[in-house]
Amino acid sequence: MALNGLIWWIAAGVLIVTELFTGTFYLLMIALGLLAGGIAFAVGLELHVQLGVAALVALVAVVLLRRSRFGSWKRRDASRDTAVNLDIGATVEVAQWHDRRARAMYRGAEWDVELAPGESEGARLYCITALEGSRLVVAAKR
């Protein structure tokens, strides 16, 4: 019968180690449920109660995680994220526009440049607001 109690702890350990590779915290919440099942076994509760305790603790933990700021991460638009694209915020000089598009030298290479919505072609210096593929989206530098 001691093997039954050990299974709770081994399963929780496997989920905790697996969680280290995913980084989502959901497996950790399920592992908390398994730990609660192991504690229920150690207290001497019957198997169906152990399973119920494990399921209830895991469910509550997952729901609480989902409602927290760690469980509701939103995907960011990488084309406008300064943590992903270090070029965002850099300055580009554009000499001539053709229908809101241009070619400009930036970092030693010629890039396609496009005006951001609502921007005009009147300025000479522009700030990069996004990268869409190999195209720089720019706004007039203020």
TrEMBL record:
The lineage of its organism: Bacteria, Pseudomonadati, Pseudomonadota, Betaproteobacteria, Burkholderiales. It comes from Caballeronia grimmiae. The chain crosses the membrane at residues 7-35, 47-65. This is NfeD family protein. Keywords: Membrane, Transmembrane, Transmembrane helix. The keyword Transmembrane applies.
